[in-house]
């Protein structure tokens, strides 16, 4: 397991409730991420979750477990590519913190325990996804995260 950490902070003109819902509800994640977040129970600690591509095969891209869940404030997940699930050194962790700041939300994503290939991928991916989330919540129009 690596000690590398990636942190991304973005401010969104929205509410903690709307940001939280957009992060967890598959119908919404599909609109700005082109992937759907799915959970086997209501995002409770210990629940399994999957990040599923919006494609014909519903390909599971990432999976993991909910480690911490404080609605509208903090979500911590394990994060692993299905093909690497047997390799404990390839398991990473994501913490998502939501803080109300005036009429905005400060959204902080901290992705840690990274190995080089995952760090390279998420350093491109998180800014695109979170910028699309911001655009989606503020204007109703997401960005093309795969442009």
What's the topology here?
Layout: E1 4-12, H1 16-24, H2 26-33, E2 35-39, E3 48-53, E4 60-70, E5 74-79, E6 92-101, E7 104-114, H3 116-139
Antiparallel strand pairs: 1-7, 2-3, 3-4, 4-5, 5-6, 6-7
Helix pairs in contact: 2-3
Write a concise keyword list for the protein shown above.
globular; 147 residues; 7-stranded antiparallel β-sheet
Gist of the model:
The protein is α+β, with helices and mostly antiparallel strands.
At the first level of CATH, what is the class? Alpha Beta
Q: Major beta sheet, specifics?
A: 7 strands, antiparallel
Order of helices and strands: EHHEEEEEEH
Domain count = 1
* CATH-scheme architecture: 2-Layer Sandwich
Report the sheet-strand fraction: 35-45%
CATH superfamily placement = START domain
* Whole-number mean pLDDT: 95
CATH topology: Alpha-D-Glucose-1,6-Bisphosphate, Chain A, domain 4
Query: Termini, distance in Å?
Result: 32 Å
């Amino acid at each position: 397991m690596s000690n590398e950490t990636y942190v991304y902070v973005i401010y969104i003109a929205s509410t903690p409730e709307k940001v939280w819902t957009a992060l967890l509800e598959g119908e919404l994640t599909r609109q700005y991420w082109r992937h759907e977040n799915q959970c086997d129970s209501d995002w409770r600690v210990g629940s399994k979750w999957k990040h599923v591509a919006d494609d014909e095969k519903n390909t599971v891209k990432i999976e993991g477990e909910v480690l911490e869940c404080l609605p509208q404030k903090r979500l911590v997940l394990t994060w692993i590519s299905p093909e690497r699930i047997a390799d404990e050194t390839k398991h990473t962790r994501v913490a998502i913190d939501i803080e109300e700041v005036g009429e905005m939300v400060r959204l902080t994503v901290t992705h840690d325990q990274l190995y080089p290939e995952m760090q390279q991928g998420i350093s491109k991916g998180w800014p695109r996804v979170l910028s699309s989330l911001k655009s989606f919540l503020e204007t109703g129009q997401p960005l093309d995260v795969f442009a």
